[in-house]
Design goal:
Distance between the termini: 28 Å
Radius of gyration: 25 Å
Number of domains: 2
Number of helices: 7
Strand order of the largest sheet: 16-17-18-21
Helix content: 10-25%
Number of strands: 23
Structural class: alpha+beta
């Protein structure tokens, strides 16, 4: 299974010099800024399909005092704001490959009315009301606890505006029509129900503008068709499949083995297979067998374990067939769909605990950190 990079864009008429790039490292962003004598008008960080942090950026000719930072912690954001006596003009929150919350931001001189992160949508709304503020920039992200959070900055609510979170593309369109509005900011995210949602900021429409989402080729073609420039460019990853299938042949000690695992987007799974003697001589005695098949999501580092153990009788076979639905798998689909690493281990014994440890050791030896072990089928793994 693979994922594709998708983009959400806000566009305006191409009436000024500008540049845009996708898939850059922070070092490359700096190089292009220098080369173009430019400033960032939009920056969004994301973990790409190769499991590295990249940035999508929009630039304009440098004008006035401004700063930008990428790959920094919340504490560092606060320090730079104080140091520069600045306010945030753009914020992008993302979980990096080390499972740490990081930010990419732009700043200009000012005070604003504050910035926050780790808020639910309802909490954002409450804070806006209490502080009589409006959003200047907002970024959705899925935290390490697998829940949707928002990072945002505010300014005084001195003009008409609207904002919505947890809305689908159709709903965004409905609210734009209802309010006779234009988008000023948008951040996409795959919600815990595995549906693409958006958090958006709107203002009364006062110019030509467009918004589109989809593949890089599609969004780029719409920009060309409209003779437009990007105002903001927000990436997200979309799965090209609704299932994962893994087939293994865990042969051991004169036994021919098969193991098949299918995991669906809904969290439904099928784990089946078995062992039979490979020849008449290995079939004259019974044999014990234990087997573990695991799948690690490459974003959060959670390990999903499927295991079985039993006895292959004399001249017989041991078969297993497990079907069900697991809520943890469904919640993790957005991460599994980005990328996963399977591994398996088989032992000629009923020692499942050691067999699970074999699998965990393999991941660790290959520098793949295990954040949490979730046993979907079989004996529950001890704390590792």
């Amino acid at each position: 299974m693979s994922s594709q990079l998708q983009l959400v864009s806000i566009m305006a008429p191409a009436n000024q010099e500008w540049w845009w790039y996708v898939g850059l490292t922070s070092e490359q962003v700096g190089q292009y800024l220098t080369q173009n004598k430019a400033m960032l008008t939009s920056i969004n960080g994301y973990v790409d399909t190769d499991n590295t942090v990249k940035f999508a950026v929009v630039m304009a000719p440098a004008n006035g005092t401004w700063w930008w930072y990428a790959g920094i912690t919340a504490e560092q954001v606060g320090q730079y704001l104080t140091q520069n006596r600045a306010e945030l003009t753009n914020i992008s929150a993302y979980i990096d490959t080390n499972r740490q919350l990081k930010f990419a931001v732009t700043m200009t001189p000012g005070t604003g009315t504050g910035w926050y992160y780790g808020f639910t949508g309802d909490q954002v709304g409450q804070h806006l009301t209490q502080s009589k503020s409006r959003l200047s920039t907002i970024s959705a992200y899925v935290g390490t606890d697998n829940t949707v959070k928002f990072a945002f900055a505010m300014v005084p609510a001195n003009e008409e505006w609207w904002w919505y979170f947890g809305v689908t593309a159709d709903q965004v369109g409905q609210y734009l029509t209802q309010n006779k509005a234009m988008l000023t900011d948008i951040s996409p995210y795959v919600d815990t129900d595995n549906i693409l949602k958006f958090v958006v900021v709107m203002a009364p429409a006062n110019q030509a503008w467009w918004w589109y989402f989809g593949s890089l080729a599609f969004v780029g073609q719409q920009r060309t068709n409209n003779k437009a420039r990007f105002v903001t460019l927000s990436p997200y990853l979309s799965s090209t499949s609704d299932s994962i299938t893994i087939n293994k042949n865990p042969n051991i000690s004169g036994l021919n083995g098969t193991a098949n695992l299918t995991v669906q987007k809904s969290g439904a799974y099928s784990f089946s297979g078995g062992w039979t003697p490979s020849n008449v001589f290995t079939g004259v005695v019974s044999q014990e067998v234990s087997y573990v098949l695991s799948v690690r999501d490459n974003v959060r580092g959670n390990l999903f374990v499927f295991n079985t153990s039993g006895n292959v009788p004399v001249e017989g076979s041991y078969n297993f067939n497990n079907n069900g639905t697991n809520a943890s798998l469904a919640e993790a689909w957005q991460f599994l769909s980005v990328g996963y690493t399977p591994d398996d281990s088989c032992r000629a014994s009923l020692d499942i605990a050691t067999t699970i440890q074999d699998v965990v050791n393999w991941y660790q030896q290959n520098q793949q950190t295990i954040n949490e072990v979730v046993t979907v089928v079989g004996t529950v793994a001890a704390a590792l």
